[in-house]
Amino acid sequence: MALAHDAAMGRFDFWKGALLTAVVAGVGLIIGRFTVRLLVRPLEQFREGLAAVREGRLTPIPVNRTSDEMAFLGESFNRMIEQLSASQQEVRRHQELLEQRIRERTEALEVAMKRALAASEAKSEFLANVSHELRTPMSGLLGMLDILLDGDLRAEQRDQVETAQNCANSLLALLNDILDHSKIEAGKMILEQIPFDPRGLLEECVKALAGQARKKGIEVRCELGDDVPASAVGDPLRIRQIVNNLLNNAVKFTERGWVRLAASAQAGDDGVTLTIAVEDTGVGIPEEKLGTIFEKFTQADGSTSRRYGGTGLGLAITQRLVTMHGGRIEVESEAGRGATFRVTVLLGKAGSTAAAQGAEPRLRSQGSLQVLVVEDNLVNQRVITALLKKNGYAFTVACNGVEALAALEQGEFGLVLMDVQMPVMDGLEATRRIRQRARWRHLPVVAMTAHAMTGDRDRCLQSGMNAYLAKPVNAAQLMGMVDSYLRMSTAQPLPLREPKAKAPTPINEKLAAQRLGSHPALLQGMQQLFLEFAPEQVQRLKLAAGRRDTGALEREAGQVRTAAEHISATQVEKCASEIAAAAAVGRLEQVQADIGRLEQELTRLSDRVAGQATGEPSTATAGD
Ligand code: ADP
Hints:
- The protein is an alpha/beta fold.
- It is 57% helix and 12% strand.
- It has helices at residues 14-54, 69-150, 155-185, 198-216, 236-252, 304-308, 314-324, 378-390, 401-410, 427-436, 456-462, 475-491, 509-516, 520-547, 550-566, 570-584, 588-613; strands spanning 5-6, 11-12, 194-196, 219-224, 232-234, 258-267, 272-280, 329-333, 339-349, 370-374, 395-398, 413-419, 445-449, 467-470.
- The strands form three sheets. Strands 3, 4, 5, 6, 7, 8 and 9 form a seven-stranded mixed β-sheet that branches. Strands 11-10-12-13-14 form a five-stranded parallel β-sheet, with helices on both faces.
- The longest helix has 82 residues, at 69-150.
- It is elongated, with a radius of gyration of 42 Å.
- The N and C termini lie far apart (120 Å).
- Mean pLDDT is 79; it is low at 352-367, 491-502 and 616-624.
- The site of adenosine-5'-diphosphate has 21 residues, from helix 5 and helix 7.
């Protein structure tokens, strides 16, 4: 402002000052704008560029060609953007390629999987058919050989027939192994829960092998502890299979010395743990092979199959069966020093199940009940009836379901042996009709079928059959089944015959009247509907109990309970609740007993509903 001081005048010249200020401000403005253009704008563009990169947009920023540092920075930034976008495109291309490959692979896998599934189904179907085709003639062959051996034969002829029988038995064993293995693989092996005599079973297994062992000069011993029960609940067929596999191997791999079966049992809350040890003084198993002999198609020694035969399936099946029984299998052995196989299986306690009073003599000394054999094939008829006759059982033969129903009307039967595939009326339909009648609801029906696969067993059980025998029917298995069921029929009077008045009525009339009193027809319809589905649900409960599937038991029992509640069937509801409660705490023995009671209650309910339909007077009391 000194320039604005007029020295001549000696005072401050205002106009001069204002002019000077304007010039200074103008220059300042020009410098400011220049600075903004040169520095601030490019910096702002950088910032925007970076923000865009952050958001994934790779766009170059405008660069002033000023040839200074800012221009250099801007160009570098744009080059970087170019490279980034190039590599991004490259990554995208690779990604697309990869996705394309994954798509192709997935499609190829899906096609392969569909083909594998179809092949597996075809294999199962093929096995089922082959088994059917093979088992039916095998059934006739074995049965006829049995009958032939029962007759008068010259020593030489007997020898020849026995050789034929041995060959047929080996073929059958092989066939059974392959089928069992397929069944286990397909998850279709279901365990039975029926009363049987473990002592008798073990003794029979040893006895059955004694002849073969004697021929080799081997002594066979059977040592059963006093604690091994004479009655328990389980799957005698499969336990026999486990024991037979071990005993057969022991005899097969022993050249001299002895084979010993020792068994003991321990009773617990949940059942009986049966421990069976099969010991031999044979060739033994080298230590390094001990871990692999339970694998399928594995033999300890490559030369085994040449020397002793076998497929290497026996122990694999045995191990799976033992596991299914809630048990374990162990082996101790040394090469050249024999082997000891030890298995444990968990059995249900026979407890109050009158059916399992295994120590009782066979029915033939007791009784009057006969077996109804329903079978259309003449050869099979002759085989089964010859076996029944040989063991002292009375029987009647029917050729199809219709004849079976007619026979049941006329006679008093303790057991029905039911073929599945028959003309006129098949076994499944016949069983369903049997179950519709209250007086036959508890009549044991055992299926006999050459079908060993594709859910046949389930279909049989769902139709209301109690158990299942695969053809060709093994004599010991058939007799075991006949024996235990007939004993059950004699020991356990049908609930129908119990005096009705003593037990609480199946339907709480008061509750029913409150709920649907104004619609008696509706209530009756609901009751009938419930009864129609009840046998199927009971079968499902039994299957779940057999599998020891407590979750399924709770679910199924829950469904029965709710349905029973809707029709005020208080007793059924109570049984179902008890099943669910016992299943929840894993008390399978209790579950078995409760299922038995549930069946009885269903029969009573069915009688009651039938009585209502025919106008029979009600026995219910109001305070029920
Ligand atoms: P397979 O007897 O049909 O060959 P297994 O699965 O029953 O098949 O047995 C597998 C293998 O385990 C046998 O081949 C044999 O090498 C061995 N093994 C089984 N039991 C005995 C035994 N008691 N003594 C010696 N080796 C045995």
